[in-house]
Amino acid sequence: MYCGREGVSDTADHVIARGFFLPSERVDLPKVPACTTCNNMKSHLEHHLLTILPFGARQAAAARTLNDLVPGRLARNVPLHRALLDEWNRQWQGEYAQRWTPEMKLPLDSSKVSRLCEYMMTGLAWLHWGVDLTEPTQVRASFFHPTAVRTLESLFLNERWGAKIEEDIGAGTMTYRAVQDSLAPSRTFWRFTLYGIVVGDAIGFPGVRADTIYGVSNPPQ
């Protein structure tokens, strides 16, 4: 489902990785057929992000997610563990607040989050609508400047959209909303949140903080 090549699917992939969720939340997560090459590339992204993202979790089960899932992953990935220890820093942050509050920052390549969302868009579009978003369909996901959020949210209200989806899996662990063009099935628009994390200095937006990833797919030109 990710590369669009016919006859190469030799495995199945959880579109939304089971590792994002506590064991009690892993029932009936969606799966799609995939080839080993795509599955491995997506898994590499997931293993990296599943270790880092819980540090910024803000959903209801944030503390359990961090305490129960992350220590074992760090133990199995010594280079990443060492890199996180080397690069994290604490600084006091506050703006017009009565108190300064401590905030821990960890290095995160926001392009990895965007790329994972593009994989999920492709798999979920097929699951929900039976639509193929593989090449040459154009698929793009990204963090956006907060000043653009109101405009982006207004796009969900466009009357041209037909089918609509809104899902919350694991009480805020993963949320996504999507709409599909009734006249061009491969034109879709998406919004994702992961753990409710806030990313600062996303690629292209130095100094900006964002907590939502928006995605769009368009038919080939």
Describe the secondary-structure layout.
Elements: E1 11-14, E2 31-34, H1 36-52, H2 62-76, H3 78-87, E3 89-93, E4 101-105, H4 110-129, E5 138-143, H5 149-154, E6 161-169, E7 174-181, E8 188-194, E9 199-200, E10 209-210, E11 213-218
Antiparallel strand pairs: 1-2, 3-4, 5-11, 6-7, 7-8, 8-11, 9-10
Short description:
The protein contains five helices and eleven strands; from the N terminus they run ββαααββαβαββββββ.
Strand tally = 11
Give, in order, the helices and strands. EEHHHEEHEHEEEEEE
Structural class: alpha+beta
Q: Report the C-alpha radius of gyration, rounded.
A: 18 Å
Low-confidence stretches: 90-97
Look at the structure and give the mean pLDDT: 89
What is the count of structural domains? 2
Strand order of the largest sheet: 5-11-8-7-6
N-C termini distance? 21 Å
Proportion of helical residues:
25-40%
Helix segment count? 5
Task: Quote the beta fraction.
Answer: 25-35%
Spatial shape: globular
- Largest sheet geometry: 5 strands, antiparallel
Protein name: HNH endonuclease
Organism: Paraburkholderia gardini
Feature tags:
5-stranded antiparallel β-sheet; alpha+beta; globular; two-stranded antiparallel sheet; 221 residues; 5 helices
Note down, in words, how this protein is organized.
By secondary structure, the chain is of the alpha+beta class. It has two domains: 11-105, no CATH class; 110-218, no CATH class. It is 31% helix and 26% strand. It is built from five helices and eleven strands; from the N terminus they run E-E-H-H-H-E-E-H-E-H-E-E-E-E-E-E. The chain has a five-stranded antiparallel sheet, covered by helices on one side. Strands 1-2 form a two-stranded antiparallel ribbon. Helix 1 crosses helix 2. The protein starts with 10 loop residues before the first strand and ends with a strand.
